[in-house]
Amino acid sequence: MSKICVIGTGYVGLVTGTCFADMGNDVTCVDIVEEKIARLKRGEVPIYEPGLAEMIARNVRAGRLHFTTSYREGLADSEFIFIAVNTPTGSTQGSADMRYVEMAARMIAEELDHYAVIINKSTVPVGSGDVVTRIIRTHLARPDVSFAVVSNPEFLREGAAIQDFLNPDRVVLGSSDMEAAHRVAALYLPLRAPIIMTDIYTAEMIKYASNAFLATKISFINEIAQICERLGADVKEVAVGMGYDKRIGRAFLDAGLGYGGSCFPKDVRALAHMADEAGLHPQLLHAVMEINQDQRRLVVDKLVSILGSLRNATIGILGLAFKANTDDMREAPSLDIIRWVTGQGALVRAYDPVARETARQAMEREGIRLDLVTFCSNAYEVAEQADAIIIVTDWNEFKSLDMVQIRNLMRRPVLIDGRNIYEPREMVSLGFTYRGIGRGTGPAATVLPASDSTTLPPAPTCERTLIGE
Ligand code: UDX
Asked: Which residues bind substrate (predicted)?
């Protein structure tokens, strides 16, 4: 059992602290926001994350998980201090705002009275490990105290955070102090994951490069989707066909409205900014960001091309959160889409299974006219008298709606499927004017398991016309 302090109770901090407690360690989570800590002490979890509330309650009951606003209390006897505060986009051209990390480093320095390993989990620009070391050294209240700094980027996804933390594909540790890095490695040994030990700059870069690569995969498939649309191919089947190639893999090849959330947008921007600052011009990263923004606009263009004008039209929005299984609205495509359609005179009826309050707050912050938005309590209510519906988030409950009922409730049966969850032919046969992202209308492809590949299915009647025929 180790004594651990985690600074910051956002997604990463709260999940890290809770999971380490669940692994038998004694963990204190520190946050300077009193209201957050008060809520956690009352057993209320400030974020929606499946399984987290139960895990927190279990570990609090077992006396292994504590919450405080006091650095002194959190740091007392802690061998490991994790910094897991947020690094939002700063004011200059996508740079990462290091304010909270620097503040945490200073507060640690003011209270630290024994040797500890300080581990940075926040996504920070390459070279920040040195900044943290310098700040702590400068502000140490007890200059005789020694410490080590280790970078340990976190790769968990919202909505699958506990599962991802406890079953990581890899653990990355970067430090100039290998003994300290080995101590941190020991914390992760029960997870039986590959552990990569490297220098601090490389560890910081691994996080940015991983997120940027995944974002690139998404923008790549979105560009392919646009080409598919023009040439009559179906991007969903293209992704399946590509995904069987082990060098490519099927994950993150879902074409749609592009990426949102707290990580990809800000990390790609920050990496591009770092490269720009270093005198480079990272063309690919800039293209990735441009394509991502285009995806949102294309959906509204599709709407306009079908409805003509949006003035006085009622547009149904299914899903507000940036992705399923979260109430997080950060950089959610729904915000841009609602801003644009209301800007063109439309009224919006919106529903999300979880993101309601967070959606309302985000819209207010973004200056969206809330008087034009009606929040509904289910998908069928959204459909009432709607001139079109846009599926924005792929929540499971949107995947098996009674589409006949939906169609009958709508004023005009127009369905823009921003997450490709329905089959184009089926929707057309139900009477919808349907637009997915990069969906052709050819016969669905069949994939046989390898062992059955000698028995071929009857050849489908191909209705596609080849270009040039
Ligand atoms: C991501 C990374 O996956 C994680 O490793 C990192 O620590 C934080 O950022 P998260 O933002 O929680 O996690 O969500 P993720 O599930 O990765 O999805 C990111 C965005 O990409 C979502 O908006 C999602 O809708 C979109 N996406 C994902 C696609 O558009 N297509 C895909 O194929 C996959």
From this structure: 155-158, 207, 252-256, 260, 323
